[in-house]
Write a structure and sequence with these properties.
Layout (H helix, E strand, L loop, with lengths): L1 E2 L4 E6 L17 H24 L3 E6 H6 L1 H6 L1
Parallel strand pairs: 2-3
Antiparallel strand pairs: 1-2
């Protein structure tokens, strides 16, 4: 999600697709493919953050598990 007028971007990262160290899981089949895929996703996250920093944007990354753990807080806000 982004608000271009204020240069704000919010990313909600899935624990699986962004290889969360707490909740990400590595598939048991085709591991070579998945290792490369998930590593590329993490590298892309870094590239995207660098782009936003370089262009003076404010951004926030939120993990999927943070929303699940705090869903009542999110609903009240």
């Amino acid at each position: 999600m982004s608000i271009k007028k204020y240069k704000i971007a919010i990313f909600i990262d899935s624990c699986f697709w962004h290889a969360c160290e707490l909740h990400g899981n590595r598939p048991k089949s085709n591991q070579e493919y998945w290792d490369k895929k998930l590593e590329r996703n993490k590298d892309r996250d870094i590239e995207v953050e660098e782009f936003y920093r370089k262009n003076n944007w404010n951004f926030k990354r939120v993990w999927e598990h943070e929303i699940k753990e705090n869903r009542m807080k999110w609903l009240i806000m």
